[in-house]
From TrEMBL:
Protein name: GrpB family protein
InterPro entries: GrpB/CoaE, NT_sf
Pfam families, sorted: GrpB
Top-level taxon: Bacteria
Length: 184
């Protein structure tokens, strides 16, 4: 399989959940070190987010990485350097995003990493960490989310965007709950 075929197969990869893999945190640590080693002046922090960051959670076996930068202008300046560092992305898709830049790594026709470059300690940064941390602390809530993910993966196997959108209400309810508690 050549690079173009691998990329196309990764883009078209169906939504398929895997049971939690205890190797996922180490895969994140490796990518974190790689990013910080190459972009030490630009990345203020790098965090493991998404379902692979929640012990016991089934997930698409793709490591979600959130890299914090000082401003979206820095994220934009990193666009081409990240493309030269093994990531790919869609310029058109990123043009629809006001609060982040999105990149993907792939190998052998499978997605391996998603990189979300966001403003460090901005709204999106805090929301993603709040969601992750809440599910890490609340086993019952994590169980509900796992069941929802399985149901949605079965319904939206061939439509990643629909799968992600369908999880949105649950994610927003968790984040809104955290905000409510913080404002007290």
């Amino acid at each position: 399989m050549n690079e173009a075929q691998s990329l196309q197969q990764a883009i078209d990869e169906p939504v398929c959940l895997a049971d939690y893999d205890p190797a996922w945190p180490a895969r994140f640590d490796t990518e974190r070190a790689r990013l910080l080693g190459h972009f030490p002046a630009d990345l203020l922090d790098v965090q493991h987010i998404g379902s692979t960051a929640i012990p016991g959670m089934p997930a698409k076996p793709i490591i979600d990485v959130m890299a914090g930068v000082a401003a979206m202008a820095v994220a934009d300046a990193l666009f081409e350097p990240l493309l030269g560092f093994g990531y790919v992305t869609s310029v058109e898709f990123n043009a629809t995003l006001s609060d982040r830049r999105w990149f993907m790594r792939h190998a052998k026709g499978r997605r391996t990493h998603h990189l979300h470059v966001v403003v460090h300690d901005g709204d999106l940064w805090r929301q993603r960490l709040a969601f992750r941390d809440t599910l890490r602390r609340d086993a019952a809530l994590a169980t509900r989310y796992a069941a929802l993910k399985r149901e949605l993966a079965a319904c939206h196997r061939r439509d990643r965007e629909a799968y992600t959108r369908a999880k949105g209400t649950f994610v927003r309810s968790v984040v809104d709950g955290v905000r409510s508690l913080e404002s007290r």
